[in-house]
Structures are given as structure tokens and as C-alpha cells.
Write a structure and sequence with these properties.
- By secondary structure, the chain is α/β, with parallel strands linked by helices.
- The chain contains 3 helices and 4 strands.
- The longest helix has 12 residues.
- The model has no long low-confidence stretch (mean pLDDT 79).
Length: 100
């Protein structure tokens, strides 16, 4: 499980994600950073498409920010995704366009 202390870690890891086609599982705990952290995670997720298992746990109480659809839309490119877990992270009743 990756503990995101600084959301910039995802910007730095993008080359690893892009160049590693066998990268299948990502588990992230976001302790702080709100929309900025979630947006950077979404950006990184949108740069590659190999995930089969993704978990995002928002640890600073229930996430109510506006960036949740960014993550869902970024995950739409991961066509092999079989397991998705979003803990303390709402996608809303109507979900997002990326999940349809």
C-alpha cells in the first residue's frame, strides 16, 4: 500500500507506470491533500492502462471534494480492471461519465 504524504509522488512515478506494462495492482492511501491529491492521482492513472486492481482509501474522513469523477474517468482507460475499491470516496448516485 502506498502512503501518499506528498501527492507529487504520482507525477514522479508516471514514467514507471507508462514503461511497465506488467504493472497490475495499485493501492493508495491518501491522508491529506484533498482535491489536489486526488487530481494528481487521476492524472497519473490517465497516463497508462494496465491496471487490473485499484484501491483508493481516503483516510482523512469522508472525501467530499469535486475531483472524484477525475479518478473514475481516468480508470475508464484501464479496460482490464477487475477489482475497484474506493473507500471513503463517493462517486455519487449517478456516478460519472467515465464509468459508463
Amino acid at each position: 500500500m502506498t502512503d501518499v504524504q506528498s501527492s507529487d509522488i504520482f507525477r514522479l512515478l508516471v514514467p514507471f507506470f507508462v514503461n511497465n506494462n506488467s504493472f497490475k495492482t495499485l493501492r493508495v492511501t491518501c491522508k491529506k491533500g484533498g482535491d489536489e491529491c486526488i487530481s494528481k492521482i487521476a492524472f497519473a492513472l490517465g497516463q497508462f492502462n494496465s491496471l487490473t486492481d485499484f484501491t483508493l482509501f481516503y483516510a482523512s474522513a469522508y472525501y467530499e471534494g469535486g475531483a472524484s469523477c477525475e479518478v473514475i474517468e481516468a480508470l475508464a482507460g484501464h479496460s482490464g480492471l477487475k477489482c475497484l475499491s474506493l473507500n471513503n470516496f463517493p462517486i455519487g448516485r449517478d456516478a460519472c461519465t467515465g464509468s459508463s
